[in-house]
Amino acid sequence: MVLIVTRCGHCKKLAPDSVWAELATKAKGQVNIAEVNCEQYGALCKSQSVDGYPMLFFYHAGQKVDFRGPRKIEPLEQFVLRAVAPGVQSISAEEVDSVLKKESVFFLVLYTYSTPQLYLDDVESAAKPLLGTPVVYKSRNPEIFKKFDVDPADGPALIVIKDHETKPFSVLPLSAQTTVPILEAFFQHHRIPTLQQLTAENFPDVMKHPAKPLVVLAAFDMENMPKTKLGEEIEKLTSIAKRWQTSAVRLTDTRPTIFVWMDGDRWSKWLKSMYGIKREDMPTVVIVDHSTQAFGEFCGKDYEVDE
């Protein structure tokens, strides 16, 4: 893992005698920690497409990931531990409930003794770019097949579980025709939760998603919105997102549709410059098509998505 720095204030907070040093100590023996000063090694930083400071790059198994999570020891350590873990991890029947409770999204390979090893190897290869986020598990336990309502007689399958539910969000049968590119596309298509808050950390995953998705973005005036009302709005948007994901319209479009909500006060300047949304317009929804960079007219306070 490499820290890209200059003498900026934010860089100093990750200085060798603080968070960065603590991470190096805790991750010793699992990952190599390095630091690059772009004022000294400008050409190297340019070759790595550095566009701000500080930046955290993680290199593993030929993959490079720009870590944009909180610059605190807990999320950094969790990221490293997940990234260096096996691409596909075994899971027992006893562990399933805790994983369901903890993870908003995870993948699960269900296979049998007769499943060709090549199928599992291909899943392992396709899962590498995820670097453990979300986690990919595997099992051939009949109890786990039953829990997720998958029939072993139908053959091995890769399923995605979202929103802490036992019903698979999507199922991809594994066969000789299920190539690594198909598996990679499945992972990228389904790695985002049904609904999440848009933050600076996950902004690149959502707004710069390689699949150029449709993004349904709800903006709330959180400064003037009671917490109970916010909860109601999020619950409403979650319901809309779930209905959309299973609708006939969605099934005809191979691109993902990502539903997010955001703090309209904190992002007020960005919302106004990008979509012309003002605080008095909130709560409101804008639908952005990343394939054309176009966005639809936003809805008013009684928004609803017409399937």
Automatic annotation (TrEMBL):
Alphabetically sorted, this entry's keywords are: Membrane, Transmembrane, Transmembrane helix
Name the Pfam families for this protein. Answer: Thioredoxin, Thioredoxin_6
Fetch the PROSITE patterns from UniProt: THIOREDOXIN_2 (PS51352)
Classify the source by domain of life. Eukaryota
UniProt domain Thioredoxin: residue ranges: 1-85
Question: Cellular location of this protein?
Answer: Membrane
Please give the coiled-coil regions recorded for this protein: none
Q: Which SUPFAM superfamilies match?
A: Thioredoxin-like
What Gene Ontology cellular-component terms does the record carry? endoplasmic reticulum; membrane
Query: According to its record, how does it sit in the membrane?
Result: Single-pass membrane protein
CDD domains per the UniProt record, alphabetical: PDI_a_family (cd02961)
Q: What is this protein called?
A: Thioredoxin domain-containing protein
Species this chain originates from: Thanatephorus cucumeris (strain AG1-IB / isolate 7/3/14) (Lettuce bottom rot fungus)
Gene name, Swiss-Prot/TrEMBL: LBPDI1
